[in-house]
């Protein structure tokens, strides 16, 4: 089956029916392994102590906050350039999940920052750009709800999403471009990860687990969105059907009244 | 049985607890929404309102 065949929502629903049990299984297994490695196996950091355990959720949340937005940006291209039938659906389904991951990134970062930096929040480039990302997500969700017609809403959201994508490289490179309280990248570096395997393994396991979680939730939310659009279409058809019946009844009534007005004249003549 | 989380155990537990609550909420919302959409669609189809492509979908 070619990828383009999935553009058919019915085929997508059928495929997702078969795929979802595997995705849920993979999420549960990797999450269980990741939590075990993070909470029970990984050593304490020599400076941070056990607080380093927050890293195993905070960093995947940060990656997924950006990954969700990237999925939405690709979907936005699908909407504007290829008019892909599932592109809008994909973008709309990803937005609340991405917003949740961004929110968790901010909250867990704050909970990590207080004992390590002595403050819950600081207006440095990394933290501020992630806050901007969260606000972007909320704006996109609000825009979806403002425009009732899904195709028009999809186009407006696609433009906003693509414009907002400029924030993603800013988040990624903010720690290199500006002096920030936030530490620089320690995993995705040109010279390899600056982290021992005993910490890198739980972190990567949790990252894979949360990626599976995102994909599972995204597929589930896409299914709901497809059904929501079908319901909208059916209700429009129902309303159109009721309107045409009402028009036909009105026509019959006016024809009958015209006939009753002309009959006496014919009798008189 | 939790491992020894040191002086800052409250911050670590709060991080994992908030994550659990938010992710649980998102999962609950998505599952509830799907169930609601599915039952609404079934109700409309039971009233005889169907998509034009419903027959084509059934064949493919």
Summarize the model shown:
Chain A has seven helices and no strands. By secondary structure, chain A is mainly alpha-helical.
Helix residue percentage of chain B = over 70%
**Low confidence ranges of chain B:** none
Largest interface: A-B, 41 and 38 residues
How do the helices and strands follow one another from N- to C-terminus of chain B? HH
- Provide the structure class of chain B: mainly alpha
SS class of chain A: mainly alpha
Distance between the termini of chain A: 76 Å
- The total of beta strands of chain B comes to 0
- Principal-axes shape call of chain B: rod-shaped
**Any idea what the radius of gyration of chain B is?**
22 Å
Shape type of chain A:
elongated
Mean pLDDT of chain B: 85
Walk me through the topology.
The complex is a heterodimer of chains A (269) and B (60).
Chain A: H1 9-41, H2 55-82, H3 87-117, H4 125-146, H5 150-164, H6 167-177, H7 197-268
Chain B: H1 9-46, H2 54-59
Task: Describe this protein's structure.
The complex is a heterodimer of chains A (269) and B (60). Chain A has helices at 9-41, 55-82, 87-117, 125-146, 150-164, 167-177, 197-268. With 269 residues, chain A is an all-alpha fold. In chain A, helix 4 runs antiparallel to helix 6 (167-177). The longest helix of chain A is centred in the C-terminal third of the chain and has 72 residues, at 197-268. Chain B is an all-alpha fold and 60 residues long. In chain B, 73% of the residues lie in helices and 0% in strands. Chain B has helices at 9-46, 54-59. Chain B is rod-shaped, with a radius of gyration of 22 Å. In chain B, 12% of the residues are buried.
